[in-house]
Amino acid sequence: MAAVAEVLSCPVCGRGLVCAGRVLRCGLGHSFDIARQGYVSLLTGAATKLTGDTAQMLDARAAFQGTGFFDPIAAAVAGAAVAARNSTGPPPGTEVIADIGAGTGYYLAHVLDAVPDARGIALDIAKPSGRRCARAHSRAAAVVADAWRGLPLRDHTLTAALSVFAPRNPAAVARCLAPGGRYHVVTPTVRHLAELIGPIGMVTVDPDKERRLADGMAGLFTRVDSVAVEYSMTLTRADIAHLVAMGPSAHHTAATGEQLPEPFEVTASVTVSTYTAIAATAVADAHRDR
Questions:
Q1: Domain holding 9: CATH number?
Q2: 13 is in an annotated binding site
Q3: Fewer CB atoms near the end CB (10 Å): N or C, the chain?
């Protein structure tokens, strides 16, 4: 936590935070205790429109991620982060990567393994996520925060941000990214887990998702890269039960896949998009024109 305290900001007054033992404190005296599990909550108690994942959902997600079926997606995110780093060339040791809606910290951990001198911040609104993320990686700090009420991060301090299967607040991310910083966004295609929609009632992917993503980024970000990741997974009934229980489908169906043949082929299909803030693009273009 001490390694990233300089990047964090007080959710009450917006001033910077410093780490003093087991407490984060701002210049006006607002203080936030670091829980014994290793995370800090920067929630202010006001109402939020986000609903965090439950401990049971995170348990199921960790179990599924532990099988390695989503490793190709994690590898693609890490590859995008490395490619962005190579193109922007931040000084070693200065990189700070935030995973917004980090869940178990699985994707951030893969990125930090690929960028060995970077510091990580795992942000999620759910306290069970904070507990998990605090032990996800030795260079990752866990922060409980509400992305929709503004990220508790100082302006222009992140070299990269991740949003993997998570709600997005592009304006908040744009504020926090340093010049040349990259925003890596993973979204499912309509083929993602499609074989499970009919048999067990998995939540469908909105066919308009790509357009809505573009609309949300418009005026703030320019997409500089896009990678399609699609492959087949051979799942057991236990794997399928974890898939159902780990995401939004858990709120809509009690099915576990017991009626399906075993093994069962299911498609993983996502797009890994990399964006740069429009202001950062303008600065880079102006520099090249000199």
A1: 3.40.50.150
A2: yes
A3: C
